[in-house]
Sequence to fold (168 residues):
Amino acid sequence: MDVLIFNNLDAEAAANILRPCIDIDRWIDSIVSERPFGSTEELLSQACNAANPFSEEEIVSAMAHHPRIGERAEGGSAEATLSRGEQSGLNMEADIKEQLAAGNRAYEERFDSVFLIRAAGRSSEEILAELNRRRTNDDKTETREVGEQLREIALLRLGALFDSVSAR
Fold:
């Protein structure tokens, strides 16, 4: 997507372009209302500011769109397609897959939510280590970390959408 084309879309069409990055209305509205952007970097800067931080309610709402780490997202939605691409590089050998599944179950019992991490650019071993580390977090710390991961995922997706090299 070219930022100049994005600038000229009506608000609904622009929001629909952003929604697969993260389905948080405040974030989307903030970006759409700040148009026009002079560059992709300017758009990403606004997106970063709007995502810093997400509220607890926004985090809970956005989590509904994320599959368990190590599981293939089903369906043809843009979010599912992006998730499959982000997790495509993970090593899914039987041992790792079993450890992720067990870790996911323990995490869900602890936090009553799926474990969320930016998978792109990480090995399955690194993700597993983070899963085990974060299971020891208190609720407030974990909510903050989930928000940071959602922000990273949203900016990564937005950067890819606008063919940007750096999605801070």
Notes: DSSP finds nine helices and no strands in the chain. The longest helix spans residues 139-161.
